Amino acid sequence: MGPYDASIPTGSGSCSSSSSSSCARKASDVDGLLAGAGYKVKSSDLLQVAKRLERLETFMVNTPSEISQQLASDTVHYNPTDLASWVDSLLSEFNHNYNQPHSFSSSVSDLSDFTADLHFSSVPDYWIEKNYTSPPHHPLTAVAAAATEEDSGIRLVHLLMTCAESVQRGDVSLAGSLIDYMQTLLSQVNRSSGIGKVAGYFIDALSRRLFYPQAVCAGSAFENEIWYHHFYEACPYLKFAHFTANQAILEAFDGHDCLHVIDFNLMYGLQWPALIQALALRPGGPPFLRITGIGPASPDGHDSLRGIGLKLAELARSVNVRFAFRGVAASRLDHVKPWMLKVGPAEVVAVNSIMQLHRLLSSEESLDTVLAWIRSLKPRIVTVVEQEANHNEPEFLDRFTESLYYYSTMFDSLEACTIQPEKTVAEMYIQREICNIVSCEGLARVERHEPLAKWKARLGAAGFWPLHLGSNAFKQANMLLTLFSAEGYCVEEKEGCLTIGWHSRPLIAASAWQAAPDPPPDPVPTPAPHVVVSS
Amino acid sequence: MEEEREKKVKFSINDHQDILVEILKRVDGRSLGVAACVCRQWRSLSRHDSLWENICFRHVSPPPYDVRHVVVALGGYRRLYMVCLRPLLTRLSCRLSRLDSVADQEEERVRSNRVWTRDEVQLSLSLFSIDYYERLVLGASVGDEAFTSTSSSSTSSSSSLMFLYKAVNV
């Protein structure tokens, strides 16, 4: 269940409180906002119309799907500009019409298209101007769920949007009181699942933004690794990323004997055992593999990068793969210089970036620098996996809306996970991202996700050509998904890139690139940073 | 009745280990697991990795090329079967039978005679290597639970193969 799957306007209560100002503003007889949508409703009648729509909504929620379907598709609009009497006629008509079986999922889409038009001035102007014409296809799993619970959920979403809009405007007092109101509303909603859980995190993030803007949204490196590991186990996104990237790297390395993989975020190195094992079984014998892992420096002095390298070496030794490891400690990718990676002359290079490139977008220069030095290494393949989301818009409200949608979908998919404590800790991983997107700004805001299309443009402009991920990667990804019990995950292939999503909403996108053969452009000079290098 | 026959012929399979091994080479995974519970001798026999090698890759077409040293290094065929192949097989054939909606008998047939593809073998080997690695890094994995076939409390550290054991219908 996401926040937008039932975009039925809530009742008269919210109309009178949050839009009384807008009602008062429209001095003319006919409500201006609805007139824009083609409905003539007198401002004085708004309350009546709201009540009737609420009745209609209750009716639709409580009737079987076949009837709702009929309502959505077979209705003839006699004078739709007269909203009040039209709703009345609908209600009376369907009190004596029955039995038109239709498929449930199409009824959901019709319903949402139908009700999208009815969305009216209980929320500020921008919402209507946004034109949300195609809400996601979430199956309404429990249509008979308590109408009040759904009501509260929908109200929460509306309030979140209003609050975000007032934050953007700078209206701190309104935002603050909205947050208080939402917190009381949260107590009426089931906080352990669905919209309650997501709303809780977003409300926390909003209040952080208002009252503790300097607070850091990240855990320590140690905590990050643990959250990452639990997220790895609870849902298939990271596994999909690793397996797809490995498959692409394997295919690119075919026939070469001296391999060098550069991992932009080593963590526990969970991606590499599968690659090492696949290389061990390569016909013709295993090649020599070197892995360079980049990661944050450990604060307490013990070299965690080297520790992981030792474990990987042990695994490689067991399966007879000649192996070497180097760790490069850097807090930011643009602090890394190519000479630190010590790429040998005969080595074939693969660069692997799992959700790291977006962290550089706080300054365009950083990304250009990094892409330039990647290119200077002449890699055989660059695997890029990124979140498929638009969380880097300049306007706060756009980011907020997008991330609400995105993370609701992700939490929805996490519901299917039953293993504990993986599920709870995985939520903390996601919550950290939400917090960063909503409450941080400037350099601190590192979760600057951009959709695949934008990454394609950026990488193309930086001198990379796309490599198609083959059908093997697609088959493997599908097989991996069959192992997960939840059936909502889907893998799609589009122009050589793979995406994994939940119920047709893509969430993570994987692509592969190679350096175009032109001479690389001069790298942009960067200020000398403080860097610790260990080997 | 069979006992009487045995007494007459004075034949005990336990005296003929090679025959026993030949028989056990041909049973399926579940039967081999059951055989391990019969007596001490059968238990030690059924722990021979070579028996499990047959079970793991008997139905693979074409047979995987020289995986033995890798499988042995990463924990052996018995562990590979318990930790990776069996859940994978079960899950995949569940999917298959659910899709086809066939009678129970045919379902059983599908489950036992399924021919594996190289991709499935590859995937299970990848998962197996991750299991091995997690034991290295974290000291244990939940694969341990399936491997020792006990229901003792799982270790505090977790494995990426957890999801194979906690099937849930959404």
TrEMBL record, chain A:
<feature type="short sequence motif" description="VHIID">
    <location>
        <begin position="259"/>
        <end position="263"/>
    </location>
</feature>
<keyword id="KW-0805">Transcription regulation</keyword>
<feature type="region of interest" description="Leucine repeat II (LRII)">
    <location>
        <begin position="307"/>
        <end position="339"/>
    </location>
</feature>
<keyword id="KW-0539">Nucleus</keyword>
<dbReference type="Pfam" id="PF03514">
    <property type="entry name" value="GRAS"/>
</dbReference>
<comment type="function">
    <text>Transcriptional regulator that acts as a repressor of the gibberellin (GA) signaling pathway. Probably acts by participating in large multiprotein complexes that repress transcription of GA-inducible genes.</text>
</comment>
<feature type="compositionally biased region" description="Pro residues">
    <location>
        <begin position="517"/>
        <end position="528"/>
    </location>
</feature>
<dbReference type="InterPro" id="IPR005202">
    <property type="entry name" value="TF_GRAS"/>
</dbReference>
<feature type="region of interest" description="SAW">
    <location>
        <begin position="439"/>
        <end position="514"/>
    </location>
</feature>
<dbReference type="InterPro" id="IPR038088">
    <property type="entry name" value="DELLA_N_sf"/>
</dbReference>
<feature type="domain" description="Transcriptional factor DELLA N-terminal">
    <location>
        <begin position="31"/>
        <end position="97"/>
    </location>
</feature>
<dbReference type="GO" id="GO:0009740">
    <property type="term" value="P:gibberellic acid mediated signaling pathway"/>
</dbReference>
<feature type="region of interest" description="VHIID">
    <location>
        <begin position="228"/>
        <end position="293"/>
    </location>
</feature>
<feature type="region of interest" description="Disordered">
    <location>
        <begin position="516"/>
        <end position="535"/>
    </location>
</feature>
<keyword id="KW-0939">Gibberellin signaling pathway</keyword>
<protein>
    <recommendedName>
        <fullName>DELLA protein</fullName>
    </recommendedName>
</protein>
<feature type="region of interest" description="Disordered">
    <location>
        <begin position="1"/>
        <end position="22"/>
    </location>
</feature>
<feature type="short sequence motif" description="LXXLL motif">
    <location>
        <begin position="357"/>
        <end position="361"/>
    </location>
</feature>
<keyword id="KW-0804">Transcription</keyword>
<dbReference type="InterPro" id="IPR021914">
    <property type="entry name" value="TF_DELLA_N"/>
</dbReference>
<dbReference type="Pfam" id="PF12041">
    <property type="entry name" value="DELLA"/>
</dbReference>
<feature type="compositionally biased region" description="Low complexity">
    <location>
        <begin position="11"/>
        <end position="22"/>
    </location>
</feature>
UniProtKB/TrEMBL annotation, chain B:
<feature type="domain" description="F-box">
    <location>
        <begin position="17"/>
        <end position="55"/>
    </location>
</feature>
<dbReference type="Pfam" id="PF12937">
    <property type="entry name" value="F-box-like"/>
</dbReference>
<dbReference type="InterPro" id="IPR001810">
    <property type="entry name" value="F-box_dom"/>
</dbReference>
<dbReference type="GO" id="GO:0019005">
    <property type="term" value="C:SCF ubiquitin ligase complex"/>
</dbReference>
<dbReference type="InterPro" id="IPR036047">
    <property type="entry name" value="F-box-like_dom_sf"/>
</dbReference>
<dbReference type="GO" id="GO:0009740">
    <property type="term" value="P:gibberellic acid mediated signaling pathway"/>
</dbReference>
<dbReference type="InterPro" id="IPR044184">
    <property type="entry name" value="SNE/GID2"/>
</dbReference>
<dbReference type="GO" id="GO:0009937">
    <property type="term" value="P:regulation of gibberellic acid mediated signaling pathway"/>
</dbReference>
<protein>
    <recommendedName>
        <fullName>F-box domain-containing protein</fullName>
    </recommendedName>
</protein>
